[in-house]
Write a structure and sequence with these properties.
The structure is a homodimer of 582-residue chains. With 582 residues, chain A is α+β, with helices and mostly antiparallel strands. Chain A contains 22 helices and 14 strands. Chains A and B meet through helix 11, helix 12, helix 13, helix 14 and helix 15 of A and strand 13, helix 11, helix 12, helix 13 and helix 14 of B.
Chain lengths: 582, 582
């Protein structure tokens, strides 16, 4: 059943024709020598597609049925995963967007995003290993001393060493300020004592070493979130000459028995059961949360891409089944309701892809530019990409089960695994409730909606671009949705000033509304591009893009208005409901 | 984690105060001697609640972690299930609504519905055993000869013997007409040969015998669905004196490894590997599908009640966790977004309950009356109860996972199981796509919307009842939703005449729209009742019912309009999308 083939044509359409990476990024100093453009995109995507189809996708059912396990303070990962991770490393994929000064390829983030989508379609549990390693390396890149960078980055960028992020504790999840792990000064380093939970890929032997990034409290640290520091805690310490030395006092205690992503070891990690885990301060004391947050945008983009990737995987399996399965004398893909489900899967996946890749390009622009509007746009859209895409990931994987009928409920079919795997993404790396609160409370609140209104102006420009016979109906649907979005933005900005609780009560619905409208906008932009190409090309992707946009406007975008109604309603019933009656 | 307590107070509110079973059913001849009313309701609900909490709920995790298995043509069920099934039988629950002439208690269907909700909250996998047995007995009641009734019904009603329904074959699921199992005449009986799949509780040794109802084709039967007959195929044949004789040639081959409901053995059943399974024709030759359909309404109501039951179970666990779990110094139930999720779970569960119980009462009225409008109402609403409630069951169970954060994804917590279990209900007993097609194509089409418009008139009467200061906002919201429902009804009836494909393309959205509006209607009716009671009582259920209705109007009913938009849009984009581009 594992026939995943990366949708290279659609990916390349988004990267080269919709985002125009050659034109928009090729001229930037960082990318000037790299030949960013269609040829490079094509080569990278094809190579990543090959690796994903041949090496990673066959592991999905293996990891699910032979999960990672823990015994005697060691994690045993699923068969074949170590070799595949090494092939990923050998292909240079850990360092695709990393700094060339430390062994990276220095390519635009959007290529890493596309590769990440493929890994997640092929096997979400597997994909977490490179995602976490890359995230840890980026944090050291951003906050490490020169000595720390040279000690760790090259080995992490090459994929020789892995990375992990150790944040959560029992009792300290969304509220990290109450954590108990402590770091005691000990010469030029610290000794850490405590226990961390939900540590993704917290231990394994697929790579020679693991560079754990651990949040802990210094003695006499201020209370709460301002008293947390970040430490580098390598699994194996340096032997004094750059080689692997002593085993550090950080060990896996157990792995969780989870609904999905069985191939990803989710560890309880104990620090300091013996002499204390040796840790090196990363960044300034008590600035640990701020350090984590600098890489949060990238990490949350990748979580959104998990929703996208798992949707594509689920869609491909469902559409293949629907072409083969005959009921009533015709393949079920011809049944109106099955077609509805498949198109609902497909067009939302296209919309998520266009949104995620577009903002990955904005991220590259923001990194290379002094224009604060670019970073503000990224900051605004990241919680939407994370929250909206992971909500859709669950919906789409669930539709994939439904398309299969009874077979979808049988585990061997593999459709149910997409649902079980997808279900984690709305929870981790900041629950979707946290994303929504961040979107409304911080991103909308901090500039009274200015970044949001600038986005709306861009959406209106696309409405204007649709002003022709072919695209007029798309333009009309988008115009109406954008007008409503402008209205909810105004409503929320007012609510933030008058009663933050009211604004927060509508936050989830705003995140979803913005996601649906942004998806429509990017599909409408895609249709504008495709409409021009149609006249010069026979490729079905161009009329296909317009057909997808029409379906999206007809069946998906209509949801945005119901979310808006919740916001306009003001949530008095929610706020006034006495919790003791629940 | 298994602390399920049946919501007896809400159930009794619905049964006695909203549905007024004493007034509406107590006077009917069938129920005249039974004392239908609050005292009886209270006693029955308390006893069922006790059984569900003490006997069934503790099995939920057992069945999940120690699934049913099959070896040597026998199914071994999960530990404790057989004893619990026997307790259910001893309590008389198999026969609660069955004909007293064959050992039943002859009580109104709504009591069986409430008990069924409890079984499903406690353990969906377990609940399937009595549901299927009762369904099989009802089919024999409706179509059996007097001899068949006396041979089987008393033992099935007492729970001494179980029942099963053997319909699906590989390649013949939603399209039963192409099935291959054949029945060869052999004296006064038949010999059956074939293989059936997805047979729920197809084999076990919890009861002395299993009465399988099997669809098969007679020699020279017409093609397709008009050539299917129904047979009684007992696991053990009669020994000639009413005792258990020879083992019949129907055996389990394997049980499926499923996403959820692990405690329910889903069997592949082989008939006729040896001399042929002895079967007795039930009903007329070639009328097997029609026979099945007469009990389909009851079975589909129960499937909707599965969505309801699993929602209540998931809600109870989530709300208990949210009261205990502290983040940021307060229990998370006080966080706006967590409260939003919990209320979304709660009020939809209340709405599903009011809808399902109300139509269970209509079913009783229809059985005891010659008014065809009653049966037409039941026929109209059954696909909505099945489809809408099982879609919500998945949503609500998924929200239950989300409320738990990371813990929700860990299997031991038990929240994820509700999601895995709930996911089957939109698939079996007619997929929700089939329900939607039935609702629009048959139920709306056969009387050009007349039954639907009568329902809308009743909804409008409730709008009028809300015409007072306290309920005016509820009335306004309901009025608007009902007006839109009238408009989509008209649109679909027109589409059915002009282009059935267009109507079918909107069928799913109509099913969901009608479900949301019907839910609002029943909650509004509940609020009208509660509002009057508030003046005489301090019980929080009365203001609670109004608060739930307000939340429903604010956060849930808004979804109905987006489904309506799909119908008004006409689905041209769906229909015109070439499947080869997918």
């Amino acid at each position: 059943m594992e026939n995943y083939r990366a949708p290279v044509e659609d990916m390349q359409f988004v990267i080269d024709e919709l985002c125009e990476v050659g034109e928009r990024l090729g001229g930037l100093q960082r990318f000037a020598e790299l030949g960013v453009g269609p040829d490079l995109s094509g080569a990278l995507l094809e190579e990543s597609a090959r690796l994903s189809a041949e090496v990673i996708a066959p592991l999905r059912r293996v990891g699910d049925t032979q999960p990672a396990s823990c015994a005697e303070r060691k994690v045993q990962i699923s068969p074949g995963y170590a070799e595949a991770l090494q092939q990923l490393a050998a292909g240079g994929w850990y360092g695709i967007a990393a700094d060339p000064a430390h062994g990276g390829q220095g390519l635009p983030e959007v290529y890493g995003t596309a590769a990440c989508e493929m890994w997640n379609s092929a096997d979400m549990a597997f994909a977490l290993a490179p995602i976490l390693s890359i995230g840890a390396a980026m944090t050291i890149q951003a906050h490490g001393s020169e000595q720390q960078k040279s000690a760790y980055l090259e080995k992490m960028t090459s994929g020789e060493w892995a990375g992990s992020m150790c944040l959560t504790e029992s009792g300290a999840g969304s509220d990290l300020g109450v954590m108990k792990t402590r770091a005691v000064p000990d010469g030029d380093h610290y000794r850490l004592f405590g226990q961390k939970i939900y540590i993704t890929w917290g231990d394994h032997e697929a790579m020679d070493n693991i560079v754990h990034l651990v949040l802990a409290k210094l003695p006499d640290a201020p209370e709460g979130s301002r008293g947390i520091s970040l430490f580098i805690v390598p699994k194996y310490l340096d032997d004094g000459s750059g080689g692997l030395g002593e085993r550090n006092d950080i060990y896996p205690v157990s792995v969780e028995h989870k609904l999905g992503i069985h191939g990803s070891p989710t560890c309880v990690m104990a620090l300091g059961d013996d002499a204390g885990a040796v840790g090196y301060l990363l960044g300034e004391p008590n600035q640990g949360l701020a350090c984590m947050f600098t890489m949060m945008n990238e990490a949350r983009l990748k979580m959104g891409v998990q929703g996208l990737g798992v949707s594509e995987g689920a869609y491909q399996q469902a559409v293949a089944y629907a072409r083969e399965r005959v009921q009533g004398g015709v393949p079920i893909i011809e049944h109106a309701d099955v077609k509805r489900m498949l198109l609902t899967m497909r067009v939302q996946t296209e919309a998520m892809r266009a949104l995620a890749y577009t903002e990955a390009v904005t991220m590259d622009l923001a990194h290379q530019s002094a224009d604060p509007a670019l970073q503000a746009r990224v900051d605004l859209m990241i919680p939407v990409i994370k929250g909206w895409s992971t909500e859709l990931g669950v919906e789409i994987a669930s539709l994939g089960v439904q398309v299969h009928g009874g077979m979808g409920y049988v585990e061997e079919t593999g459709a149910a695994q997409y649902l079980r795997d997808a279900r984690i993404a709305p929870i981790y790396e900041g629950t979707n409730g946290i994303q929504a609160a961040d979107l409304v409370g911080r991103k909308l609140g901090r500039d009274q909606g200015a970044t949001m209104l600038a986005l709306i102006e861009e959406m209106k420009a696309t409405v204007t671009d649709c002003n022709n016979a072919e695209l007029a109906d798309i333009g009309t649907a988008l115009a109406s949705a954008v007008a409503t979005l402008a209205a909810t933005t105004t409503t929320l900005v007012e609510q933030l000033q008058e009663n933050r609780h009211t604004a927060q009560a509508g936050a989830y619905d705003f995140m979803m509304q913005l996601g649906y409208v942004a998806g429509a906008w990017h599909l409408a932009r895609s249709s504008v591009v495709a409409s021009a190409r149609c006249q010069q090309s026979e490729r079905s992707i161009y009329p296909g893009k317009i057909a997808s946009t029409r379906y999206y406007c007809e069946h998906i975008l209509v949801r945005a208005a119901s979310h808006a109604e919740v916001i306009f309603g003001g949530s008095a019933a929610l706020q006034n409901y006495p919790t003791e009656w629940m």
